[in-house]
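User: Last request for today: this protein with beta-D-galactopyranose, please.
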Amino acid sequence: MNFAWIKKIFASPARYATFAAVACILLMTPTLPGQSQTTSSTKSNAVTNSVLTPPPLLLGTAWYPEQWPESRWNADLDLMQKAGIRFVRIGEFAWSSLEPAEGDYHLGWLERAIDDAGRHGIYSVVGTPTAAPPAWLTQKYPETLRMEENGRKAEHGNRQQFNWDDPKYRELAHDIAGRMAQRYGHNPYVIGWQIDNEYAAVSFDPRTRADFQSWLQHRYGTLDNLNTRWTTAYWSQTYSNWDQVPIETSRGNPGLLLSWKRFVSDTWRSYQKNQLDAIRQYASPRQFITTNMMGWFQGYNHYVVARDLDLASWDDYIGEGHLNAYVNGSTDDLTRGFKQKNFWVMETQPGHVNWAPDNNDLNKGEVRAMAWHNVGHGADAVSYWQWRSALNGQEQYHGTLVGPDGTPVPLYTEVAQIGREFTKAGPTLAGTSPKSQVAILHTYGSVWAIDWQRHNKAYDPIVELLSYYQPLRDISQSIDIVQPTVPLDQYKLVVAPGLNVLSNEAANNLIQYVKNGGHLVLGQRSGMKNDDNGLQPERQPGPLVSLLGGRVEQYYALIDPAPIHGQFGDNTSKLWAELLSTSSPDTQVLATYGKSNGWLDGKPAIITRKIGKGSITYVGVWMDEAGMAKLAQWMTNMSGVTPAFGPVPAGVEVDPRYGKDHTVFILVNLANGTQTVPLPRSMQDVLHGGSVQSVNLPRYGVAVLSEAKK
Ligand code: GAL
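Assistant: Here's the final one, the structure of the complex with beta-D-galactopyranose:
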């Protein structure tokens, strides 16, 4: 067959190639009796395994075809295809277009959009539209609107107005998710599902309160138990009936606060499970299910919500400012820890956002640097929000890849470069993922508990965690952020910057880790609380006191930094200082306080104890960058942590990803000028080809290097 006429219509060879491939597949497929060649089931039959296997590294964008005439779609898809975009996130927020009136389903347009995208070599991640219920729905079923904490009902006109705990809303959400799964769940171009969008707004209506009370009953069994664990004799808080328990979100009893957050997390999980089950009932198991999370957002426990998902993903927005490799990289690492495997960046900013105080653009080259930085930390997909602004709607000023006229904005060419590079490097990155010799422990309970009672207003538990992350990352060049209950034996060093709420399960896991030869370092405020946010009667670090052979005698919120000296030179502790003591002759003092408030003067600030081949250390201070760098050096030396790659100039980030028989190193230069990086050994330059001994990286320059495992 001569395709010359088609080549003329399909101006670019790439577009032609995709069209030809799909056409061949369709032509080669026998038509079954009773089937028309244009139905989607015929197409499914026609699809070969190669169509069902998406590329290992994917560039994507959020596309809202419902906002545009269908006649425009091909032009958009052509431009996406030219930029190397391999998936669209589609359908989220489109409920009023999918079901304009109750029971009146219009699912065909989305199927056409998915198929049109597929013909351009672009896969789809279908979003359930439940973050934006239509007006008819909330009008007819007003109980589906959530109630704000001040008792006001949310209204239509924005999004997230739904009530996540309402049975009617769940029924309607289940229905639309199930119908979508029935329709698109075997479409070969649909690779996955995103449930809802950025869970955040909860409801404070009377039913939610009653459900919270039932949840408490389930957790505590008896009121006596709850009263004891929450010490409700305090301020006469004793409950004699479950329905007396209120919702408190910031100034309530600490046990109540933590329970509410746990209830919120479980309720998001069950909200999600409702849709997940509807999708799973119909969709092919090859389609993953995820939801887009928000990094360090503290609204719920992400480990709990991620449990039922196939894959974790997050929305990576810098907002105001520029890419900070530590802040952003730690958020990637946090997200990777939700499922302890590679993740997706489901949304990121094409240049700028519209919601920061100052919505500056990322510099030329920075968007590409950021995409590779994400991949370095374990992202297997990076997706830009959004393709094109709706002409009206709340986000007109947000960054896009094409303008309101539908032609590319300046950033488009940079994104197209990422597209080419992802295609090239994808096969080398397939099957690789980061792993580290160092774990930083993190729990939501601890962060919440410190945040509710900071005791020093500047004490931000995430900032404290990052003060460990940064110098440790510089040395080890890879960090895992995980919960304290996961298996830890693979790590040479485990650091818990602020493990304030320490469950018995976590404590036993840590004790076992140290006894097995692991090196555990606890930071300020660790082990202060039990699993009900009550004080540990042994004082800090609670159940780890006897292993440490020492404890915290007192904590002090500081107005003036407290001087310290010892193993890490002369430094100060800012914001907070803990006076330590030793109770065992083999517990060593590594640093002591200088003259301060009198109480601290001359007293231990950092103590450590060897336990067989392992050790446990308690750091009662929070030093400045130089001090934390020395501490990180000491921790990595004593635990035998080695750099993944080797020395690199300041400002160059190294990200290792390990495969079965090879390792990939991604290097990103975020320093101001060009940096030359000598490689520890010669490696393959994946983007440019050939074997190299060193690489020259301009500002925002990227190198992807591969070496076989010895
Ligand atoms: C995200 C949201 C998107 C879009 C984006 C703009 O939080 O999921 O729908 O609003 O922000 O930055």
